[in-house]
Design brief:
This protein has 158 residues and is mainly alpha-helical. It contains 5 helices and 3 strands; from the N terminus they run αββαβααα. Strands 1-2-3 form a 3-stranded mixed sheet. The model has no long low-confidence stretch (mean pLDDT 84).
């Protein structure tokens, strides 16, 4: 921003860094859907004129925040979803990637654990299952907390 960029430029740039980083859960390293894919959402708003853009359920757009900005600046819409959003991205030459790009080994392991737990869901072990799920959620929460601390350090260094 000190070099003439807008606040929207700054927000998009920071979010792109997060989307590209396997240390954060936006973009690369996103959480899987029930069917084992990654679907991404993003939204952005310009406070000066209250314009906004958003995208949802993207499977191949490398940086959803950039597409959300294009929705805000180059369409009459506020939100585009799924295949329609991906077709809109094609019009502007947005970078697309295979859905596997977003999957990290850590998330694959978490997904496999959750599927294994779900497969025993209808047994007599519901109490143990609940405790196991709580442990997994706690482990994930602690990882997210560590990443948030990383984000605060980046933010403060700006």
């Amino acid at each position: 921003m000190t070099e003439g960029g807008s606040s929207v430029d700054a927000v998009e740039t920071v979010i792109r860094v997060l989307e590209d980083s396997p240390l954060f859960n936006a973009g690369k390293r996103a959480v899987f859907t029930e069917d084992g894919n990654v679907e991404l959402d993003a939204s952005i708003m310009n406070g000066k004129d209250i314009s906004a853009g958003g995208v949802a359920s993207l499977k191949h757009i490398k940086n959803p925040i950039t597409l959300a900005r294009f929705v805000m600046e180059h369409s009459p819409h506020v939100l585009l979803f799924g295949e329609g959003a991906e077709k809109f991205a094609d019009e502007f030459g947005m970078q697309k990637v295979d859905n596997n790009y977003f999957k990290t080994e850590e998330r694959i392991e978490e997904y496999n654990k959750s599927k294994a737990i779900a497969s025993i869901e209808n047994t007599d072990y519901k109490f143990e299952l609940s405790a196991a799920l709580q442990l997994i959620k706690t482990e994930i929460w602690l990882q997210e907390l560590q990443q948030a601390e990383w984000l605060v350090k980046i933010w403060k260094s700006w």
